[in-house]
Amino acid sequence: MIIDQENSLHFWLLRGMARRAGMDVTDLLHRQALPRHEFDRMVDLCRTCSHACDCLSELSYYPAHPEAPPNFCKNARNLTILRN
């Protein structure tokens, strides 16, 4: 995936949601626990979501303990599987 202006927002939203759930995407990619093609697919799925503003609101605070992604997140299931 090429990170361009269209993909950039969703790239960072996905990384933020993963971080909020207690995961480091860079580390997961480096260890190949998350294959690059799967991460790209997750960013593409995020791009189809109409809740970017809600996502930004969720990411505006950082919980004391990792939290599951919100129900509106199209990658909630994927992130939950990765987390476990």
SSE layout:
Elements: H1 5-20, H2 25-30, H3 36-47, H4 52-59, H5 76-83
Could you write a compact summary of the structure shown?
By secondary structure, this protein is an all-alpha fold. It has helices at residues 5-20, 25-30, 36-47, 52-59, 76-83.
Name some characteristics of this structure.
single chain, 84 residues, mainly alpha, 0% strand, plasmid, DUF6455, DUF6455 family protein
Q: Would you kindly provide a written description of the structure presented here, covering whatever features stand out?
A:
The chain has 84 residues and is mainly alpha-helical. 60% of the residues lie in helices and 0% in strands.
The tally of strands reads 0
Distance between the termini: 26 Å
Give the strand content: under 5%
User: What is the tally of helical segments?
Assistant: 5
Helix fraction bin: 55-70%
Q: State the secondary-structure class.
A: mainly alpha
Q: What characterizes the major β-sheet?
A: none
Based on CA atoms alone, the radius of gyration comes out at: 12 Å
- Looking at the structure, what is the overall shape? globular
Provide the succession of SSEs. Answer: HHHHH
Oligomer: single chain
**Count of distinct structural domains:** 1
Query: Unreliable stretches, pLDDT < 50, 5 or more residues?
Result: none
Whole-number mean pLDDT: 88
